[in-house]
Amino acid sequence: MNHQLLDIESINQAPGDFLSEIGHLFAVFDEHSQDSGNISYGVKAGRQRFFVKTAGVPADPRPFLPHQDRVALLRNAIRLRGSCAHAALPQLHNVIESPHGPMLVYDWLEGDLLHADSAARLQPQSALQRFRRLPVAEILNALDTVFALHLELAQAGWIAVDFYDGCLIYDFSRREMRVIDLDMYCEGPFVNRMGRMFGSSRYMAPEEFERGATIDERTNVFTLGRALANLLSDGSVARSTFRGGDRLFDLLRRACHPSRDRRYASIPEFYAAWVEAGKGSSCS
Ligand SMILES: Nc1ncnc2c1ncn2[C@@H]1O[C@H](COP(=O)(O)OP(=O)(O)O)[C@@H](O)[C@H]1O
Ligand SMILES: [Mg+2]
Fold first, then answer.
1. Number of domain units in the chain
2. Ligand 1 centre and the CA of 283: distance in Å?
3. What is the pTM of this model?
4. Residue 157, domain extent
5. Per-residue pLDDT tens for 244-264?
6. Do the domain assignments include residue 67?
7. Considering only CA atoms, which residue is closest to atom 17 of ligand 1?
8. Distance from the CA of 168 to the center of ligand 2, in angstroms?
9. Which helix (H) or strand (E) is 67 found in, with range?
10. Boundary (domain end) residue, out of 68, 90, 107
């Protein structure tokens, strides 16, 4: 498609004004739904739908992170997308410079975010609960997409930060898992300088709460293990609620070991164990 959204390099207007001029805004993600300070838009331009992400309004003092830090995270997301072409990531078509910083023009993904606030999450009709009721083989397939993506990212040197179910969009009709919002991922291991880092405690390793601790692939092994516990069980690591077989349960326990030394040493090692266990299928 030949549309200015896809080839224009810069604009002088506020992103929302520009987008509503050149297309139809059908969704806005702002402070009513996000605590990031970012403002993103669902835009229909021509016959195609896009997700356009911006760092929000520079002068707004309310967000936790200042505007320049939010802009830096978006530029980080551009780098990440440039270094990994895995199909689970939405296509990044264009970056438009605006007075509010870069506008990242992604594909609009069909499907449901597997995240809701703590009350809504427990509702039987929430996307997460509907996902948990899917056949085991379908869940394993979706998990493989998440794990294979993280294998590629690890091989490109990226350490996952702030990965949780709010990064997962599942298309229930096509049975496709897609992954969004990896803006906080870091190029290489680093030392935790924050104490409690950004993220959902349901996915975070003990070292993500510990100032001075190293955050590396062993940390990410824990997080992927937590994805397994959250999607193929009720979030616990109890055997009784886990829907996989014994070998997969062993993998889960090892990945989510509180002690770093007892986990898989890297994402490739974790993924190899997953493949050896038939990507879960040989043990369900
Ligand atoms: N490519 C996409 N297609 C459709 N919806 C998306 C897409 N990316 C994100 N979203 C939706 O927009 C919301 C905000 O996007 P996200 O990248 O998580 O921004 P933030 O940095 O504000 O957390 C997500 O929770 C999700 O519901
Ligand atoms: Mg988000």
1. 2
2. 34
3. 0.96
4. 112-283
5. 999 999 999 999 999 999 999
6. yes
7. 181
8. 10
9. helix 67-83
10. 107
